[in-house]
Every structure is written in structure tokens, then in C-alpha cells.
Amino acid sequence: MRGVVLNGPGDVAVVDRDNPKIVKPTDAIIKVTAACVCGSDLWPYRGIEKSDGPAPMGHEYVGVVEQVGDQVKNVKVGDFVVGSFFASDNTCEICQAGYQSRCVHAELMGAIGTQATYARIPLADGTLVATPGMPDADLVPSLLAASDVLGTGWFAAVAAEAGPGKTVAVVGDGAVGLLGVLAARQLGARRIVVFSRHADRQRLAAEFGATDVVAERGDEGVAKLKELTGGLGAHSVIEAVGTQESMMQALRATRPGGHVGYVGVSHGVVLPGDELFFSAVHLHGGPAPVRRFLPELIDLIWNRTIDPGKVFDLALPLEDAAEGYKAMDERRAIKTLLTP
Questions:
Q1: Cα–chain-centroid distance for residue 131?
Q2: Residue 328 to residue 275: CA distance in whole angstroms
Q3: Residue 260: in which H helix or E strand, if any?
Q4: What is the DSSP-derived secondary structure letter of residue 164?
């Protein structure tokens, strides 16, 4: 099969890889219908995160089940399925508490690499959710979004306790932040402020439900947000970047007693204990338990209540993956969809 590998910083290639095989009786093999490039893929692409190449790439995927192991009961050959970027059994105590991304048997799909023609899905019964039927082609991007960025944005909004009557601020205007806006709107937020300097992302944020835009960053952005909120700050803040600046901006933009939902993959983030102590702010986040939300998100997409697939503003064949990475790195694209 063909698959994307990262040889080193800035060096993406599409190469021949061995077709996946059933390794454990709980595995499934899917033919990938669509995959995509994630903002977190840019950390190793930029050399910020070390990667030993050639490393398989990709952890977001939808596709059709081609083969199942002997112990797989919940999905069958021919099902169209959506999975999470973490494989999970969905039965352990941690999964049952709603934190499937920290399953005691969790496996990271990025190590398998789903930017490929086929993919092996471990723990298929717990990881994969079948759609009600074969989706119309125009639903595929939205279902693909559910496998990570929508589920991650949704978890961020839930962790931040976005809801009716709340003012929600979103730090980060990438795909996760934009879908955090969508999630906050669906959860009933009264006011949604997005921090963004990019007109195209501001337009999409407004389409998803943002009511205000703040172009300033850091402490200037915090000051502007407080102007909009009577000096108090937001009730709920979504942090969707993962840098020191973005985390401090999120913390400082939150009113006392408010909540930060942080889902940006942290790189070099250090929280000053005294400021955190006196902020009286709740922090909750980490790798999103996407599997917790998949049934609900698939239903919302299937019934065309939400259209998160709009975050894909560049669609390319798998063979052109290098251009997809480059476009996102240069911020010419919000998110790249790849078709094997």
C-alpha cells in the first residue's frame, strides 16, 4: 500500500508500505476512505518534536472494514467506521469513566500511521463506531473531523464547562479551536469570543457561532477580552495551541471560578504556582477522550445538524501529502484532507 512517512523536519514522502495484517484477534483492518493532516503533525514536521524517520504519519481516519479478528463483535466487514486517535478497549475503569484516551490498554494510532491506503485498528470493538449506513460523499469530511479535531474541540468545550448563559473564549484559531467554537455554540453558550488574526478563520468562526473576535494576543488580548466582559474575564476558556503564551493567555482570560479546557499538545508549558493559586481557576484537559463523544457526534453529523467538515479548506490525493503539510505549515490552509 501507499503511506505517508516523515523522514525528518520538513521532509514528507509517500512510499510503499507493507499492507497491514491482523496481529491480535481484537484487531480490524480498514480501507481508509479519508485521512488528514493534524496540527499536532506539524510539531515533528517543524523539528520541534523529535521523530526518528522514516516515521509513519497520521492518526485521523474513516473507512470501510475489510477484515476483523476472531474476537471482534461490534463491527463487521463492510461497515463504514469512525475511530479515535487513541485505540481503547472502552471497557476498563478509566474508559467507563469517560477517559478512553487514557485507557489502561491504550494504543496511539499515530504510531501505526493512518495517512495510508489501509490501517490496522487495535482494540476494534472499543475504538471503532459504525455509522448507520454508507455515508453520502459530502458527509465524509465531517465524519473524519469527528475522529479528532471535532472530538477534541468538543472535549475542550465540555472541560471548560461551556453552556447556557456562559461567555466562552477560544485561544487558537486552528481546526480544533474553530470546532471548539462550534461545540460551545451547540452546548448553548451565550457569547463566544475567538482570538484570531486571520480573516478566513474569523469568517469560519463566525459561521460556527462566534459572536466576537479579538485580534490581540497575550496580555493585550486578555485586556481586550476583559473590556468585553466588564473586567471579569470569560466563564469558560478553550486553549487549543499548547504553548506557554497560549496557556497563560487562557489562564489570565478566565474569571475567578471559571474553567479552562486545555487540549493543545503542551510544549514547554510551565505554570507559575502563585499565579495559578490566586487565579481560583479550574484547569481540565489533556488528550481528548474522543471515543466518549463519537456516538453523539456521528448522530449530529448524520442528521446534518452540524457541518464540522468545513474546516477542511484543502483536499488533496494522498500522493500530494507533502503539499498538504507545507500549506498548513505556512498557514495557507486550516486543515488538509487526504484521499488515498
A1: 19
A2: 34
A3: strand 254-262
A4: B
